Each structure stands twice: as structure tokens, then as C-alpha cells.
Amino acid sequence: MSGHSKWASIKHQKGIADARRGQLFTKLTREIIVAVRDGGSSPDTNFRLRLCIQKARDNSMPMENVERAIKRGSGKLEGMTLIEMTLEGYGPGGVAILVEAVTDNRNRTLQDVRNLFTRNGGSLGESGCVSWLFDLKGLIRVNTDNVDADEVTLKAIDAGAEDVIPENTSLQIYTKPDGLEMVRKTLEESNIPVESAEQMMVPKTTVELDEKAALQALRLVDKLEDLDEVQRVSINADFDEAVLEKYNA
Known about the structure:
Layout lengths: L1 H19 L2 H17 L7 H12 L4 H11 L9 E8 L5 E8 L2 H14 L3 E2 L9 E10 L5 H10 L4 E5 L2 E6 L4 H10 L6 E8 L3 E2 L2 H15 L4 E6 L1 E2 L2 H8 L1
Parallel strand pairs: 8-10
Antiparallel strand pairs: 1-2, 1-3, 2-9, 4-6, 4-7, 5-6
Helix pairs in contact: 2-3, 2-4, 6-7
């Protein structure tokens, strides 16, 4: 999972940049609306909504925005009809890519995603062609600047974490999907500050790409995520540190 760890670090930094320009708030709003529509407006009984609200707080989204999204999801405010869709395909070098979207126009989103795959060395595939290569996991990030990394690791494992991976000045803690809340709660009760916590699709195994294919794959993922309707992009590439640094330069 180490290859995915490096990629997750890049994704986290990109999320911060997205929040600065407001794009992340749009995506979070859509997530909340769909969560409410599917499971109700009470976070006490809607696990998915609880995660969405916590993610919104982690990213400093104003609570009035959260409350407005909940009202839209419950029908108390008018808004567009949103649907969820997952698209699957292959990127440069044959790498597997999952695209999760929330949209008001399935055909438009399908065409936009297909065009990006085609123009960036990839191809959109049939449903189920690559999803089997990924597992849904919880991912918690803890900054280790002012905490004992070994202590955090032990507490996380005792609380049910499946894996803990050090990455620069942070720990990436992987959990079962339904264990995310418990591990986070345990850490926070121990006064360990949690930087972020979310569910994500994690590759079961990763593949290595040469530099050209890796840079092309990174460009494709960035372009996909720049679509407002796209909530999350997952890829099973193991990006070399030098390639990530070159891409971000």
C-alpha cells in the first residue's frame, strides 16, 4: 500500500488547493445532498451523512452551507435532481481508473469523462472492468509534528486500524469502512489531532509506470477531477517519488 500512500499525500494537498478555490465546497455540497436523499437528514441515523458533515468541517466549509445542502437533500429547498454514477476505464500504460460522479445530467458527464480518457491516452471501459481491483477503505491522516508517531500507531491499531503508513510528517491510517468513525473517535479522545478522515477506494495492488505514462496518467486524473461533477478518482498506479516531484514542479 506504500505506493498508494504517496499518491494519497498528493491528493490531500490537491484537496487543500481545491478548497481554496471553492471547488471542493461544490463537491461536498453534492455529496451531502445525495447522502440525505438516500439515508435521511439526521446524522445520528445516517452514517454516510455523518462522514460528509465531518469532511466538510475538516475542510472548513461554513456550517450554513452544510445546513443548506441538508435542506436541499431533504426537499425543503428546491434544487437540481442529482444522480450518482461510477465510470471505469484504463489510463496510460493500462492503469486502472475509477471515476465516481454526482451529476444532474448522466449523458453529459459520460461524454465529458469519455473525451478526457480518449484525449489523454486512455479509454473508457464497461461497468465492472476495473472496480474489482479496488477495496473501499477508511483513511485517516494525522500530522506527526507534535505527537509521538509510535503512540498514535499503537492506539490506532488497538482501535481497529488495518494498516498505518508513515509518509513524511504524517501517518496514514487505513481502516475498514465501518471502522473509520471508531478509530477517529479513539484518536480524538486521546487528544491526537486528526487532520482528515474519509472513505476512499484503495487499490488491492499497484502497478509501476514509466515516467512518460506516469506523467500522462497524473494529467488525466487532474483533468477528471477538475470536472465539477466528479467527486473522486481512484487509480492503481504506484507513482515514483521523482515523478510526483517532477509533476508538481
